[in-house]
Give the backbone structure.
Amino acid sequence: MMTYRSVAHLIDANPTSDGDGLALHRAFPNPSLRELDPFLLLDHLGPTLLAPGEARGFPPHPHRGFEAVTYLLSGEMQHRDSWGNHGILGPGDVQWMTAGSGLVHSEQPGETLMREGGTLHGFQLWVNLPKRRKMQAPRYQDTRAASIPVVRNGDGTVTVKVIAGEAMGASGVIDTEIPIRYLHITLAPGSRCELPLPRRDHAFAFVVSGEVDLNGTVARKNQTAIFDRGGENVTISNPGVADAELLLLAGEPVGEQVVRYGPFVMNSKAEIVQAMDDFRAGRMGTLQ
């Protein structure tokens, strides 16, 4: 017998800004939802129209103890870090950065976007690391759009981009530290799909555009739907007159104490103090 997960909470994202003034909607953390183990943060960046020469991004800042995932829909972001890593993300690209023991990192508009202007639009997700992996060496997985699997249903009305995990017989190419599913789903008006969503996972959907019906609960743009754990499947349909897009994320809980202070996520206050000391002493490196 099929069992289905319902929406337990529906939360509006908060409009705010971060970095050097980049406009965004923060799905969480917020007063209604601090975290959803293993997920720590989700930001919807823009869409922001940048004029030529107008730099809006995230100047150098440290990270330790978690993973930061950047997914672009449009625009161009250039990343650098204190370990000497450097790269460019374009439309559809994903950067899965495991901060681990710590680094200093920046994400700024790429040279083409700065020179010509354009629209910057994407997402940043933070994923917790278990204690045993918080102090591992940092690593990057810059994944181009062309290598990310995209699958469609039989009549082409539902499209799923498999950033991580599995859906509709396709598996993502990104090697995640803990089991994560990260899907970008597009539904034509009147279309419907059904996906397995194991009860053990914490799961949520974030609506990027349009409106979607999630097992009887309608969610709209910049709303986060938190699923209960009462079933093993989820149905998603588009009751609107235009295409609808959503992110569907699910992951096995880490199940450990979370102590966070700005860009550091550890298991104790003492570890946070150590992270701050290491950063101030330059032990995470420097980035100009």
Summary: The first helix runs from residue 111 to 116.
